[in-house]
Amino acid sequence: MDWWSPARVWRSRVYRYRLIAGRCKSCGRAHYPPANACPYCGSRGLDNVELPRVGRILSYSIVYTTPFEDKDKSPVILGLIDLGVTRLVAEIVDVKPEDVKMGDRVEAVFRRISVDGGTGLIVYGIKFRPVRMG
Questions:
Q1: Buried b (16+ CB within 10 A) or exposed e, 68-104
Q2: CB atoms within 10 A of CB 66
Q3: Per-residue confidence of the chain (134 residues) as pLDDT tens digits?
Q4: pTM of the full predicted structure?
């Protein structure tokens, strides 16, 4: 099954667009993206919770080698973002690699994630950018 199939993109849109995570009723931990079972304790008792849209960069990596179809996007900054409730890995945009620092505040923004060259399907989702002061 193709990861970017129209059906899969359509079914996951609410979670990707609104940053909806799963919170375990047994252990209380949240995880994103949500799954059918808690990755920490295995419980299937989960609730949906909307994640905060502002967090901090715990760590990051700059990726210079991207797939051929995305070579114009290089470099890509991937960050481990702490949202308080949980952590997630996401692309950091609207900043030069040399200006990214651990501890920087970032906010969620709605952006294009990918375009399937075969079908023309455009996939949107959440990336993060530095919080603008002022």
A1: eeeeeeeebbebbbbbebbbbebbbeeeeeeebeeeb
A2: 13
A3: 355 667 776 677 777 778 999 999 999 999 998 889 999 999 999 999 999 999 999 999 999 987 756 667 789 999 999 999 999 999 999 999 999 999 999 999 999 887 776 777 788 889 999 997 75
A4: 0.84
> Does residue 83 sit in helix, strand or coil?
coil
Nearest to 94 by CA among 131, 51, 55, 54: 131
Chain centroid to CA 100: how far? 17
> Sign of torsion, CA 80 83 88 93?
negative
Q: What is the Cα–Cα distance from 128 to 54, expressed in whole angstroms?
A: 9
Q: How far is CA 116 from CA 43, 69, 77, in A?
A: 35, 10, 21
Cα separation, 95 vs 131, whole angstroms: 11
3-state secondary structure of 49: strand
Distance CA 114, CA 126 (A): 12
